[in-house]
């Protein structure tokens, strides 16, 4: 099983550090970031593939339960494990379809049970969630493309240019809308009328001049973003 990309969200630094130490016993779980301000979660979700979130509930900036809906808008497949010192949130957490619920202080035994359950669940759905190879037709040839190898798509009439992260380019004999449907939806985002990018390729987004910077074969390129994308971007990031 590949690494489970994980972020930890809690306004208490000690809680973040303790949980990180406990999770270090599980090599499959890769802690990407520890976040003390819950609003900082959205830049990570927009630019990184996240599989699992340990989310505190009772935080002063925003309640973890209230944060769930916006998190799902960014990543509908992410597993969420709620962590709190208050057991009266359990029913609310279950209603919001969280994967599990842990009480603070998190015990090694309870975490072990939860992680075991998580790994089993991920193994069962691995076939459905794992980025599958996609067959495309390019200049009369059938080519196998890995979704994670794609930097972005660019529409050109009934054809689509596929720019790969290694710097190469393919021309697919298909409309971009039809082609993109074959790829994992949660991994790609439409930044303008004719361009869809892989979120992992994004380095930064400049709202003022409406530009998106991507990394392509160790080089950086700029692509224009639409007003619609900018509006959605601002909404997701709470206009920060």
From TrEMBL:
Q: Which SUPFAM superfamilies match?
A: CheY-like
Residue ranges annotated for the Response regulatory domain, each copy included: 5-119
Which keywords, in A-to-Z order, does the entry hold?
Answer: Phosphoprotein
Q: Which residues carry this modification: 4-aspartylphosphate?
A: 56
Classification via InterPro entries:
CheY-like_superfamily (IPR011006), LytR-like (IPR046947), LytTR_DNA-bd_dom (IPR007492), Sig_transdc_resp-reg_receiver (IPR001789)
Please list the GO terms describing molecular function.
Answer: DNA binding; phosphorelay response regulator activity
Q: Does the keyword Transport apply?
A: no
Q: Which PROSITE patterns match?
A: HTH_LYTTR, RESPONSE_REGULATORY
| Keyword RNA-binding annotated | no
Q: Which residues form the HTH LytTR-type domain?
A: 134-239
This chain's protein is named Two component transcriptional regulator, LytTR family
